[in-house]
Amino acid sequence: MSHQHTQQENDIACSCGHEHHSHAHHDHAHGDACSCGHVHHHHDHEECTDPNCSCHEQHCETEKLPGIVYTQVKLHDDAKVVSGSLTLVGDYETIRRSLSEGLKEFAAAVTERGGLIGHIKASAKITGTEMFSVTETEVMIKPAPEQQIDIVLAAIVFFLSEEEAEQLARKALEAACPPA
Amino acid sequence: MKVLIFGGFLGSGKTTCLLQLARYIAEHSQTDNPNKVMILENEIGEVGVDDAFLRGGGFQVTNLFAGCACCSVSGEMVTAAGRIQKEYDPEWLVIETTGLAYPVRIQENMAYSLGLDARIGVLADASRWRRLRIPMENLLMGQICGSDAVLVNKTDLVDEDTLAGVDSDILFFEPKANIYHISGLRPVDESVWKGVLGE
Hints:
The complex is a heterodimer of chains A (180) and B (199).
Chain A: E1 2-12, E2 20-29, E3 39-43, E4 57-61, E5 70-76, E6 79-90, H1 92-112, E7 116-127, E8 130-134, E9 139-143, E10 147-158, H2 162-176
Antiparallel strand pairs in A: 1-2, 3-4, 5-6, 6-10, 7-10, 8-9
Chain B: E1 2-8, H1 14-28, E2 37-42, H2 50-56, E3 60-64, H3 74-87, E4 92-96, H4 103-114, E5 118-125, H5 129-133, H6 137-144, E6 149-153, H7 160-173, E7 179-181, H8 190-197
Helix pairs in contact in B: 3-4
């Protein structure tokens, strides 16, 4: 039994100064070691007929590195479904504005190219740390200077190629990256 | 366990309205079932955005990602719904579909596989209706056909003529449609939720 999953291989230069990857698809069989170098895990979705494998479907999952934009695209009928993620460390207010601007430009570019937006949405999970310490009577509270922001992007567009859709999504996420 | 399939095209406001609907169910329940409402959130992409938003509203959400419950992950949808029924047996299970799903297919699957009769509530985006009407006609029609209630959302963004046009198209797609006009950003009247839930 074999199936496809995504692989991130090709380094590309990006204006944000970080190392990025693009995606390609490859096949491998259940239970086989994969040479893509990414972390894999199994999910038990349904009964598997392969005696060497307890899972029904195997996924390729990358360890998410800060500052690197991850995207992948798939086709569903006529829709191009793009998923993306990016983890940043920095000032959320700045990143929030930049991401918002990036998404606005994404939407404008889809329309300019004759595409149709199904939806373009993102969420940001903001994690901050504060340290509490006490030596005598007073408690000192020190917030960490920066926050970790985990951004995920989900976009569905029509009448654009898969490559265009993924490229525009990637650009939107890159816009959130603070200048190097 | 009663089941509501909550569908509608991409960007029509399903998640925003679902938060209100879930609150309505939780606050107006007349049973002693501790699990008033559970949400099965289907996203076609590999990542979820809406599930975090719904969890932030305090609701129990089960994710079904990377496919559409009406087709590519229909089996997983049945498995997930069956597990929710077995483990929690909530008063209501609300399935929020992807914006590309045909709710009737999910309804048929639920009936055939689990013996559950599901209601269908569908949202339509009044503000983008004219833009979507022609290029997305088959999908819009397929989503609305067979629904129990059609919520025309974002009515605050359109004029009366546009709204009348949306209603006319919906009735062309589904002559028996029960149409409600709402704005999901404002409190939705309880009579609308009663209509959606068949109360």
